[in-house]
Design a protein that fits this description.
By secondary structure, this protein is of the alpha/beta class. It has a domain of about 280 residues: Aldolase class I (TIM Barrel, Alpha-Beta Barrel), CATH 3.20.20. About 30% of the residues lie in helices and about 15% in strands. The chain contains 13 helices and 13 strands. The strands form 3 sheets. The protein has an 8-stranded parallel sheet with strand order 10-8-7-6-5-4-3-11. Strands 9-13-12 form a 3-stranded antiparallel sheet, with no helix packed on it.
Length: about 425
């Protein structure tokens, strides 16, 4: 059985049941999402650090302007006054989404991954602005992630596209889904799809760090599938995390999944925003190189490579320029740890328990990854110099779509290494 034997139905639209996850910051580039859409599936862009992404892609100066405005707070631990301009958030989001949608071809869709945990020192207004701006700019769908999103639907209930745009939620348990559905039912706006993310996923995980090895995607998926049947709900379920081959995907589709969400395989795609050296690090990795730690200031466990540059750097908090993790009182766990380290060693503070997530993500120093990242070398060719060939998004997508019997079709081999570090999204 192949993935191509199935289709995902969302409303009146059918898709190839392959969804590329929304990896930030701009790892899931517009180019990557647009390829998924061209091939009939669904691709995600991410609005993580959207102002910084807009600056890189379109030459805007949102980051510079914010840094200049709040420069006087650079050496102060109290960041309560350091806030984003709401109109900057809206403008950056609209620019990025509209440019992407305007470039879309094919029968697929482009969705945006929107994380609740990006608090931005104004959680309510900034999240509302990001959601509304994406809808204004014509996004096909919104995937709510990194949080329970108890109020997110309420924020956009008066938007003219509230019942038009496809809206889904990422959950890792029936309990989390129940909380979201309770609010959604009150607004008579159930989600159009549900992504069920298991413990083998990359980046931030929706599990207690002590529970990561206790659960598996198969069991969580079946539990949520049964819950929906018991509630007489026919919402498509999309499992994610550790689905490495087309055969893995087709097994979930045979069990009743509407589609599968995949990401790890696409981290090394030519269209991925990850720099060349990080892609090679992923390809060179071993199973023992993959760790789950609590260094993220979000409070969520995080899976990454243990040789990630972020784990070796202590830096002054960069909230004046970025500051996406600041809570409503201008606090961040990294600031707290940095100030404590500065008291011990004012000239060279060393912080080991947390890292500056915003800055390290901005510089692609957080080599977040899925649990099966070490298998990426199975999917492509190695050159004589030891480097690996980067497949195209089309190579990977079609391997998922058409492969059988746990086979992985590698891309057509090239004779020279590809040293492309990043591609423009548009």
């Amino acid at each position: 059985m192949k993935v191509d034997n199935f289709r995902l139905k969302l409303g009146n639209h059918e898709y190839v049941p392959i969804v590329i996850g929304g990896m930030g910051v701009n790892i899931s580039t517009a180019s990557l999402a647009l390829e998924a859409a061209r091939l009939g599936g669904i691709g995600h862009i991410s609005d993580a650090e959207i102002c910084a992404v807009a600056d890189r892609e379109f030459g805007t100066q949102f980051v510079k302007q914010k840094r200049e405005k709040y420069q006087s707070f650079a050496n102060k631990p109290d960041k309560k006054a350091v806030k984003f301009e709401i109109e900057d958030i809206r403008d950056a989001q609209k620019l990025y989404v509209s440019k992407t949608i305007d470039a879309k071809t094919g029968s697929g869709g482009v969705f945006i991954n929107c994380m609740e945990k990006l608090l931005m020192n104004n959680p309510v207004e900034t999240l509302k602005a990001r959601l509304e701006a994406a809808m204004d700019a014509g996004i096909d769908g919104i995937t709510l992630s990194a949080g329970l999103h108890m109020r997110s639907l309420e924020f956009i209930k008066d938007h003219p596209r509230f019942r038009d745009v496809k809206i889904g939620i990422i959950v890792s348990s029936v309990r989390a889904l129940k909380i979201f559905l309770h609010r959604a039912t009150r607004l008579n706006r159930l989600p159009d799809f549900i992504v069920v993310e298991g413990p083998l996923a990359g980046g931030h995980l929706g599990f207690d760090i002590n529970d990561v090895n206790k659960y598996n995607l198969h069991d969580i998926f079946l539990e949520i599938l049964q819950f929906l049947k018991d509630q007489d709900l026919t919402i498509p379920l999309i499992p994610a995390g550790g689905i490495f081959t087309g055969t893995d995907a087709s097994k979930f589709l045979s069990l009743g999944a509407g589609a599968v969400q995949v990401a790890t395989r696409f981290t090394i795609a030519l269209e991925s925003g990850i720099p060349h050296d990080a892609k090679q690090a992923y390809l060179n990795s071993k199973e023992s190189d993959v760790v789950v730690n609590m260094v993220s200031p979000t409070g969520y466990p995080m899976r990454m490579l243990k040789n990630s540059p972020a784990l070796r750097k202590s830096m002054r908090p960069n909230c004046e320029a970025l500051g996406y993790i600041l809570d409503n009182d201008g606090h961040c766990d990294y600031i707290k740890e940095y100030e404590a380290a500065k008291e011990k060693n004012p000239k060279k503070p060393e912080v080991n328990s947390k890292f500056c997530l915003c800055t390290n993500m901005y510089h692609y120093n957080c080599w977040t990854c899925g649990a099966l990242v070490y298998r990426l070398k199975e999917t492509t060719f190695q050159f004589e110099d030891g480097s690996y060939q980067f497949p195209s998004a089309e190579d990977i997508f079609e391997d998922y779509q058409f492969s059988e019997n746990q086979e992985i079709k590698k891309p057509k081999p090239k004779t020279q290494p590809n040293f492309t570090s990043k591609v423009s999204s548009l």
